[in-house]
Sequence to fold (614 residues):
Amino acid sequence: MPRLNSIAELEIHRAQVIERQKKQHKVISLCAGTGCEACGCKDVHIKFVQELNARNLSIPVKLTGCHGFCERGPIVIIRPANTIYFKVRPRDCAEIIETSIVGSGVVDRLCYTDENGKPLPDEHDVPFYKDQMRIVFGLNGLVDPMEIDDYIAQGGYSALAKVLSGMAPKEVIEEIKTSGLRGRGGGGFPTGRKWETCANAKGEKRFVICNADEGDPGAFMDRSILEGNPHSVLEGMLIAAYAIGSRDGFIYVRHEYPKAVRTFANALAQAGKYGLLGNNILGTDLSFEVGINRGGGAFVCGESTALMASLEGRVGEPRAKYIHTVEHGLYNLPSNLNNVETYATVPHIINNGADWFTKLGTKGSPGTKVFSLVGKVNNTGLIEVPMGITLREIIYGIGGGIQKNKAFKAVQTGGPSGGLLPEGMLDLPVDFDKLWDAGSMMGSGGMIVIDENSCVVNIARFFLNFLKDESCGKCIPCREGIRYMMDILERIERGEGKMEDIDTLEEMAHTVADTSLCGLGSSAPNPVLSSLTYFKDEYIAHIQDKKCPAGICKELIQYLIIPELCNGCDVCAKLCPTKAITGKKDEVHVIDTKLCEKCGACLESCPSEAIVRR
Ligand SMILES: Cc1cc2nc3c(=O)[nH]c(=O)nc-3n(C[C@H](O)[C@H](O)[C@H](O)COP(=O)(O)O)c2cc1C
Ligand code: FES
Fold:
């Protein structure tokens, strides 16, 4: 690998790589993200290589990062036609090669089909992708994350070259400020202002830190960016380093992300060899190194002050917010901490200009946001959309509606510390401020869709339980308050709640939110408060009527057999683990509710739908 000693050498190298790539008239892109890997993409890769070799075809099989629609993996895209195939198995490889590589046709049976069964071979026609705006995520699926030249061919490191060749650090900060970029890690703090304060802070050195702790259950946006396009994050960090005058960077990666660590470490090694890291980057005065630090898997370590304590080798506990980490951060020195997605957005802003960025999204929240869309929607996966898109467009458009045509009940935005929003809010434009005003938040982009068969009391308890376990226990309101709220919710779920409990819950929630030391405690009550705002009737049903409207809370439900529908097939009786179901074959069966443990096995198995849950 050559060391690139100037911006001119980078541009010459880029032209050579593009020229080389032009010679590949077709490329098989295979998603090797963690989701597709779990669905067997490694075997598909082996088979493609074998089949291509058998035909003496020198067609590259490019292993890319996550393409978003993980639920339908392994995903294969034939470029440049952009023919996209889902759920590809090794047995499909020969047919794909014959049809789409040797020929220029399409294997219809592997395509996404519309509601009329018509195959949609072009990636851009598939509803999941059609309404997205993939900027940060745009290169996942195009580049091999282990190959720096792939990133360079797509314009990689041109933003760094731009700032190094013609922009003063102050101008870079001004550009980011004008773009209105707000941090994607949760709080939505203006990135440019953070950079400016850090640049102006006093200290013999300063740090650029990337927060890749991503503790929200169900969220995998940061992991997928690091695994699929690590150089974009590194380029963002380099630009930040130039802007604030730093030589030292760290990335703090969650312990459970070994693949992200591998791709990022490889990116660091390759960038180092090219002279894009280390001393005198591209022959300029900029020198910068990045160390990788693996977190221990504690949610609270994502909080900025806890993360820095952990980086120093101390216990990852937060400290009071009035001391700002931009001035007194890591080792008490000025430190700029941003999220993975925030850094990955920076090169796009520099390349396209702040005005371009402000035209995307909404006035208060420009740009796009990556969400992990999970739960009871048909199309689950990672999506990137412009801010301001409505919840309905996300859930019913991109998400393809609710599984099994069930009714929508709520969506939890902002991860475990976010809020539950009801059907009446489906037309809410999604941005930092609108979500906040609705009693929820953007968080880092977790979006969990809940259908009519989910109980909001149970869900609020579930998230609170997660936060109770993850509280570091340093401050009393968070440590004791969350536990106390949990006790009340558990009582309500058991049908032992009292109406006064609702007032106590509300009071406790406000106290915990107002008095906790860090963001974990102050946002923990959100699921409870939002569910009380929008679904108080469900709490009342549990307390007054001793009923769980969704039929979830075990102590409040009963399984019954409707005699007119029972055909006496005996399937339920055979399955019942407690022998609570009796009846002769071909005769009506009954459930002894005292013996029934409410596991639901009978309901699932009954072929004549004679069993109901009430
Ligand atoms: C309990 C808790 C956990 C957090 N976890 C993360 C995380 O995993 N990743 C992240 O980027 N920010 C996380 N944050 C937010 C960070 O403290 C910080 O605001 C953010 O990383 C700053 O980057 P940004 O300005 O680019 O958003 C968390 C905050 C709290 C209170
Ligand atoms: S891992 Fe392949 S689409 Fe997400």
